[in-house]
Amino acid sequence: NTATAFGSSTASGNYSTVGGGINNTSNSNYSTVSGGTTNTASGVNSAIGGGTTNEASGQNTFIGGGGQNVASGLTSTISGGQGNTASIYSSTVGGGAGNQAIDQFATVSGGSTNTASAVQTFVGGGGNNTASAIGSTVSGGQGNTASAINSTVGAGALNQATEVFATISGGTTNVASGQRSSIGGGSTNEA
After folding, report:
1. Three-state DSSP string of 54-111
2. How distant is the alpha carbon of residue 81 from its chain centre?
């Protein structure tokens, strides 16, 4: 039942560890904070590599670094970045800022203010993109939305894939609202 901490940090769970840094807390069984400042590993078998003000509160969660990241879902992961959230089972944020992976197996690789909010959704990067239906994907771009099952937006800006299996490869302000519809690019097209 050994707990190990250094300096002004606290390790209070069974077999918990704080390797270094300042004001870090490892207060659940088998939890670890390797370094950084004001990080908290409160989930069983959770780990934080470093950074500042990160919180790994779900069981088997991991935060690599960065700041103000929260991994609260079972086996969720945040590699780094700033102000990211992985809050449901096996959700992942690779980095970036203000990204949210908030359903099972949802992934945001990077970028800023992107949201993957349904089961097995993916946002690759860019900004203000949303994948909100099962299996939907936004690879990148700005302000794109994939809101139907297995819908896809590749890139561009302000595109909306709103029906099952609809695809928009790129361009701006395009809307794919028919089942299995496809738009290759251009501007203000509808399918």
Report:
1. CEECCCCCEECCCECCEECCCCCEECCCECCEECCCCCEECCCECCEECCCCCEECCC
2. 10
The contacts of residue 178 (CB under 8 Å, 6+ apart) are 163, 166, 191
The pTM of the full predicted model, rounded to 2 decimals, is 0.94
Listed as own residue / partner, the contacts of 84-92 with beta carbons closer than 8 Å and 24 or more positions apart are 84/108, 86/61, 91/116
Region 106-115 average pLDDT: 98
> Looking at residue 157, what DSSP letter applies?
B
With a CB cutoff of 8 Å and minimum separation 6, the contacts of 120 are: 104, 105, 106, 134, 135
Q: Is the dihedral of CA 72, 59, 95, 10 positive or negative?
A: positive
What is the C-alpha separation between 90 and 44, in angstroms, rounded? 15
CA distance 20 to 37: 9
